[in-house]
Amino acid sequence: MVERYTKNPFTPTFGSIPFQFAGRERIIDDILNGLDNAPGDPNRSTLFIGARGTGKTVLLARIAEEALSLGWLSVNVSAREGLLEEILVQIKDKAESFLAPEYVSKITSVNIAGFGVSREITEEPKRTWRSTLTSLVKELNDQDIGLLITVDETDPGCDALSDLVDTYQHLVRERRNVALIMAGLPNKILQLMKDEKVSFIRRAFMHRMDAVPADKVEYALRKTIEMSNRSISPSALELAAERTKGFPFMIQLVGYNMWKQNPHNKNISLNDVQQGIELAENDMRRMIFDSTINDLSNRDVQFLLTLANIGEESSTAQVALKWQKDVNYTSKYRRRLIDQGVIGERPFGKFDFDIPMLREYLLERFA
Ligand SMILES: Nc1ncnc2c1ncn2[C@@H]1O[C@H](COP(=O)(O)OP(=O)(O)OP(=O)(O)O)[C@@H](O)[C@H]1O
Ligand SMILES: [Mg+2]
Description:
Elements: H1 25-36, E1 45-49, H2 56-69, E2 72-78, H3 83-98, H4 101-116, H5 118-123, H6 125-142, E3 146-152, H7 160-173, E4 178-184, H8 186-194, E5 205-208, H9 214-227, E6 231-232, H10 234-244, H11 248-259, E7 267-268, H12 270-294, H13 298-310, H14 316-323, H15 327-339, E8 343-346, E9 350-353, H16 358-365
Parallel strand pairs: 1-4, 1-5, 2-3, 3-4, 6-7
Antiparallel strand pairs: 8-9
Helix pairs in contact: 1-2, 3-4, 3-6, 4-6, 6-7, 9-10, 10-11, 10-12, 11-12, 13-14, 13-16, 14-15
This protein binds adenosine-5'-triphosphate and magnesium ion (MG).
């Protein structure tokens, strides 16, 4: 019988924790050290900024998991309606397995008094919610348990977010053991930072989900393959890593597609890698680029092509000159594309693509 090696270990699905994380160690270490440190450590208030598929959701999940071993309970929510209630519900559910029964019953009673009666929420939402959360945090902190709140899909349109940030800020001032990590697309975070209601956010630490360096991609691919009892030659591995461009979703796509070429062979060959890359690039086009481009107008695409051809971070004046349009006209499109999260601002008034590999895709498709 032909042996078939274990199931494909790669995870090209949004939100799926990878078998082996590529890079991101420093971010993880900084935050975990921040949790281990005293209240007031700036790493406890952090923002993750990155385009689709750069690994924000899985990084939040990983940190939440690791935080547990440091004595931190974590609640993980997305910025949408019902966010505040969801935080309380999760604390209650999770504290149950975390705390001794006598404390759980205390928390439960706080919860019922402050939150369980929905009438109170509608009448006096903010105060009730805030006082409930504050007493839960006290209760946890008294047992040496910190509270980490992670907020995914950060959206400035979510009103509850400012209530959360406001309350969090108070808890920080009281030197409670609390932490807040928020993740979002670059344009959403940028908009949020302009909102006076959550100006506290501007002082948070910020981590961009940059491309993962090639050697770290190689390590993660090799480790995933070897831990699943297969092998790959150094040259095949090098090619695979290079073509992911360090983009986390692409690491999984390349891995997945090269693995499935000849799953009965122990070794993943150079040919498997070449075919895998081709499939991965098609998936990337289909899943990310085509839909992004189809949502845009012709002029938007012309703007982007101009930027792609310049080949580096650019200013409005540079694009206007090359595009042969005036600066006002160009800045209108710049704004539209920033709002759509396709490009993002850079220091010194410049901007560049916020979607990894989109530049190469445009140059190829519209060559
Ligand atoms: N550090 C990493 N190493 C290897 N693979 C990763 C890493 N981070 C994320 N991935 C993989 O990349 C894909 C996208 O991850 P994730 O869903 O966290 O992205 P995201 O930034 O939250 O995207 P979106 O903005 O669409 O929600 C998943 O398939 C995940 O397994
Ligand atoms: Mg996500």
